[in-house]
Amino acid sequence: MTRQEALQLMEKHLKNKNLRKHALAVEAVMRALARHFGEDEEKWGLAGLLHDIDYESTKDDPNRHSLVGAEMLAREGLPEEVVYAVKAHNERHGLPRPDLMSKALYATDPLTGLIVAAALIRPEKKLAIVDVPFLLNRYHEKSFARGASRETIAACSELGLSLEDFMHIGLAAMQGIAGELGL
């Protein structure tokens, strides 16, 4: 599947503009992580772009989220490692994350939410203003961006990355597509 085909598939299933932006953010970070680790940027990008493909259809049943999406992606012929990473990113299923892609997607999903929230509390509402020390301060505030699981973000250690390095990679990737994100 090409990136353009994946983008069309994502847009077909996700109508909410913020969910679409989230998918683009996760894609950007996954691509950056693939480059960092010398992995297949296209595959990792597809996992990021399509990880929440079923969100709007499963939002009322979080136990089905990512299982339905993985089935959809398997039917579309995506590589098994992409399908598995999508399935394993929902911690409710308790699936092991045996490969780098699965570990990266799991930790990246909430990181993008933390980064967006950090940009939105600034008067400028721009990613360019955000830096890693600012993110680290917000990370340690339990009341800030509660939906961004700190435990899940901290799973970046499974990738051999410090929290600071993970945030640096993620922030730089999202700053690179700030226009698409409206930030």
From TrEMBL:
InterPro entries: HD/PDEase_dom, HD_domain, HDIG_dom. This is Ribonuclease Y. Keywords: Hydrolase. The lineage of its organism: Bacteria, Bacillati, Bacillota, Clostridia, Neomoorellales. Its EC number is 3.1.-.-. CDD domains: HDc. Residues 15-123 form the HD/PDEase domain. GO terms for molecular function: hydrolase activity. It is an enzyme of class 3 (hydrolase). The keyword Hydrolase applies. It comes from Neomoorella glycerini.
